[in-house]
Amino acid sequence: MHTKTFVAAAVGLGLVTLSACGSSSDGGGSTDSKTVTLVSHNSWAVSKSVLADFEKQSGYKVKVLEDGDAGQAVNKAILTKDNPQGDVFFGVDNTLLSRALDNGLFQSYEAKGLDQIDQQYQLDKDKHRVTPVDYGDICVNYDKKYFADHKLAPPASFDDLAKPAYKNLLVTENASTSSPGLGFLLATAAKYGDDQWQGYWKKLKANGVKVVDGWEQAYNEEFSGSAGGKKAKADRPLVVSYASSPPAEVIYADPKPTTAPTGVATGTCFRQIEFAGLLNNAKNTKGGKAFIDFLLSKEFQEDMPLNMFVYPVLAGAKVPAEFTKYGPAAKDPETMDPAKIADNRDQWVKSWTSLVLK
Q1: Which of 86, 22, 32 is nearest to 52 (CA)?
Q2: How far apart are the first and last CA of the chain?
Q3: pLDDT of residue 70
Q4: Which residues contact 230 (CB under 8 A, 6 or more apart)?
């Protein structure tokens, strides 16, 4: 569900290519005790030098298996849990966490350095089956040029998106196939409550919201503010994306603009936290534990923002200047208790589908 690729902003434009470190698509975890196999969604990225440092210091080689977007990757990990493909899984977020935990995907491990991670990110702190690695905010992005040209203020809140001034302007992702799509649905449920979110979506539908399968299509083909959207002559100036998408538009542009061409409607955000866990029945638990410790290291946490376009969870980890300038994290994002997500997610997605897509 989760093409949470902040870096896909660039990948989708063909502006940057990621080499998955020693990536391989064959099944089955490694039986070699000197190899750690990481299973992840296809947005995993790390600087070669940083990974090389881990391999040198730990003595382990890292093999990466990328399994589509987060929803697919989690589902596949559940199906193969008795004979897992690898040792560590990275990329399950708070919208899907209960599905992974209820299916017994992970074994308990309290990572070194966890005491440096703010409690708000530790959603399984009693059992330590997952370790928080990063966070980001799913938010509506807007095309600054469109709103300037039309002398229209960009929307600032969920309520604004349903107003006639913004008719036929918003594109979002399918909540049943996309992580940002699901996050946006959860944001509206958090904002309007169990009994009113459906009424809100009826208004959005009447106001011409467009739904596509995934982030890549929404952002790079339908959204007029992205570099890809401009090429595609896209006509939707509002898209459900991330608070860190504007920095990506600046960083990967050539020449670099002085300001980001896109902005964030800060009253439309939902906080997403991503986790890693040691897979049950992992062949190399010792190596897996060392790798999870590495994910919390200052070196990895400070390398991560410009590779995966997410924020570090480690206290004191430096955030790149481009993030604070063009894509600061939301001050007051919507959030939801994972237990509440667990109880309602499938039913909400079902109701949303019949309401919005039928």
Answers
A1: 22
A2: 20
A3: 78
A4: 224
